[in-house]
Amino acid sequence: MNKWWMLVLTIFLLSGVSSLWASCKECHKDKDNFAHPGIEKCTHCHRILGKGTGHPVVVKNPASLRSEIVCGGCHRDKVERVRKSPMATAKEIIAVVRFAWKAQSTLQPLYTLETLPDYRESGQIVDDFLRKKCLRCHLFAEAEKRGAGCAACHEDGRKHKLLPKPSTENCLSCHRFNRTGQGYAGLFERDYSVVYYKFGSSRYHKLTPDVHYKKGMDCTHCHLNVMETPKTLRCTDCHRYRGIKGHDKTHKRLRCETCHAAWSFQDYGLHAKREDIPDWSLWKNYMNRYDPQMLDLAKKESDGMIDWLDGKFKEGVWFIGWTLRMWENPPLGIDDKGRICVLRPNYRFHAHYQDKELETTCIVSCYTPHTIRKEVRDCFSCHINSKAAGLGLRTGAGEKLLITNDDVLANCTGYKGRPLGEKERGALLRRPR
């Protein structure tokens, strides 16, 4: 009986919209193909939900992670795993930033994108910062260069076409702004001052790209099953030591990228200030070029901005800038397995609100610079190098070159790694034999 009622309902719905099926492309002229291979009906994915005024009510984005009836209907297990993945929950990023702002006492995740409260509920201004400035790339939202949900990775560059395997271009739509993926392509974001953005200049410094990128390898060649059971190939899965000098017991604790990374992302001292009544004239030369709404907000002299989690416009504007951005002579640390790694200093905040500097703590983490090359950096990019030891830029006589402590990492809290200890620093600063 239920089947008959479903048939009657379907006929009823189709009666008013069958002509629209044949004429979808009359309006959607940019959709000149069917997105999914083997599917040749718009309504197979854009399911009809009901009868509308002049147009049926359809599933607008079949790839949404909130949709149970389209991608989730055929690929239910995969969609469930994606919903729990770091790209959908962002729980680790939320935990680290909240810990750095002393909004929580543990680095263990307490919130996800779905549960992170508004700052008026939590009483923590960092939650407003996260919702407005950090969490643009989560898979539940559509960004300016990609779709939402499954389409974020599988859409072919905003075309109406799905790819079985994500391309490097798709990965870089989120993994950019001095993130690991951008380094793979040899791009380093310029600072925000207008002096770096003269007419016709690129927003990026063009540095040495990863050798694997130059050879045409996509991210998914090494990062397998990213959304299911993540597995990353190690260097030694493809490369063997072959008795090469330097691959000996003296350097056995070093991770491959510690020597083979041409450069690394080193963004020191992120200054974040919220203004409820912004004086835009003070910021006109320091617009945040990567945030798609900042230039528009400046033109309107707005007193609020978009909350990326709920899409609502809310009071208060966040302005950010860096003390220093560098790439040469990476600082070193120790990873969770006791190996020598490259450190990232990107969780060193200077937060300001209501003319007060908020108390924060410094966090550093080991990471893998995707700037690999066959050659290695010279010995003194690490040895007898105070910056590599985490003590900051100094002259040979030990005089500090910078006026702030942002480049001194030795006293920072470690996350998935730690800074070098006193004895380890001492050994590194001695001249090698």
How would you describe the overall organization of this protein?
The protein has 433 residues and is of the alpha+beta class. It folds into three domains: 2-60, no CATH class; 80-218, no CATH class; 251-276 and 316-429, no CATH class. Helices cover 26% and strands 16% of the residues. The protein is built from 17 helices and 17 strands. The protein has helices at 2-22, 24-27, 42-45, 71-74, 76-83, 86-89, 91-100, 119-122, 125-134, 151-154, 168-172, 180-184, 211-214, 235-238, 256-260, 294-300, 422-429; strands spanning 48-50, 57-58, 187-189, 204-206, 223-224, 231-232, 266-275, 304-306, 313-315, 317-326, 332-334, 340-347, 349-353, 356-358, 363-367, 413-415, 418-419. The chain has a five-stranded mixed sheet, with helices on one face. Strand 5 (223-224) and strand 6 form a beta hairpin. The radius of gyration is 25 Å and the shape is globular.
Keyphrases for this structure?
single chain; 433 residues; alpha+beta; five-stranded mixed beta sheet; four-stranded mixed beta sheet; 26% helix; globular
Number of domains: 3
* Portion of residues within helices: 25-40%
Largest sheet: 5 strands, mixed
Query: What's the Cα radius of gyration?
Result: 25 Å
Structural class from helices and strands? Answer: alpha+beta
The number of helical elements comes to 17
In spatial order, strands of the major sheet run 16-15-12-11-17
The pLDDT mean sits at 82
Shape designation? globular
- Distance from N terminus to C terminus (CA atoms, Å) equals 86 Å
Number of strands: 17
- Uncertain regions: pLDDT < 50 for 5+ in a row? 11-21
Strand content: 15-25%
